Amino acid sequence: MGHGILLSGESGVDFTIHGVFQYSFFGHQVWITTSHVCILIVMLLLAVFAIAAKRCMAKASEVPGSFQNVVEMIVEMLDNMVGGSMGQAAPRYFNYIGTIFIFILVSNISGLLGLRPPTADYGVTLPLAILTFSLIHYNKWKYQKPLTIWTDLCSPLPPWLPIWLPINVISAVAVPISLSLRLFANVLSGTAMMALLYGLLGWFATAWPAALHVYFDLFSGAIQTYVFCMLTMTYISNEIGDGTRR
């Protein structure tokens, strides 16, 4: 495809974001980019898998088949991961953590299909981090008293001496930035390296770069997915504490 959807451009391999087509929206010209197209492809893949999984589990048998085994393994893995990290709060956040885990993982490994990973676009990773940031502070105000929040913002000094307040506020605001940049930079670096490899070697880069794809797309992508979700669960769990409302 000529617009970078499959990491290919008019002049060869390309890892940049391109406009696919343009349309007018209330007098403004809006572009549909390769990131939008790749996100749509990932969403369609996940939707097809979800529909197939629902139908399979509706007819689940005591002796599961191959697909049922895969579905049960995914659910059990996510359940153990969320339960082990969030304890009593796990049932409330299993759907959210499971959703972002599967979406980020499939997005990261979509490079194996020749797509430009959606998570290599900061416009995708930042909203995910902002969702986490919103949940963190929702739980902070739900489970902590205002005086406790103020004391934490002034820490390590007493609450009547808020010298460290600006630094602690900056530290709190930096959470979504660090979460989004970590995921974005790692995925983009792998995408850029593979694109440069194909661009420099041309036809010589046939078959053998598959090993590099396994590392950059599969191994590194899985690690970054796990890190993002683990940090999300850790931040939220720290704010929930023992689960007692203020």
From TrEMBL:
Gene Ontology molecular function: proton-transporting ATP synthase activity, rotational mechanism
Alphabetically ordered keywords of this record: ATP synthesis, Cell membrane, CF(0), Hydrogen ion transport, Ion transport, Membrane, Transmembrane, Transmembrane helix, Transport
GO CC, one annotated term: plasma membrane
One of the protein's GO biological processes: proton motive force-driven plasma membrane ATP synthesis
A Pfam family reported for this protein in Swiss-Prot or TrEMBL: ATP-synt_A
Superkingdom of origin: Bacteria
Coarse class of the protein's main subcellular location: membrane
Annotated membrane topology: Multi-pass membrane protein
Listed transmembrane segments: 30-52, 93-115, 163-185, 192-212, 218-236
Localisation per UniProt entry: Cell membrane; Membrane
SUPFAM superfamilies: F1F0 ATP synthase subunit A (SSF81336)
CDD domains in the record: ATP-synt_Fo_a_6
Entry similarity comment: Belongs to the ATPase A chain family.
Its job: Key component of the proton channel; it plays a direct role in the translocation of protons across the membrane.
HAMAP family: ATP_synth_a_bact
The protein, known as: ATP synthase subunit a
Gene symbol of the encoding locus: atpB
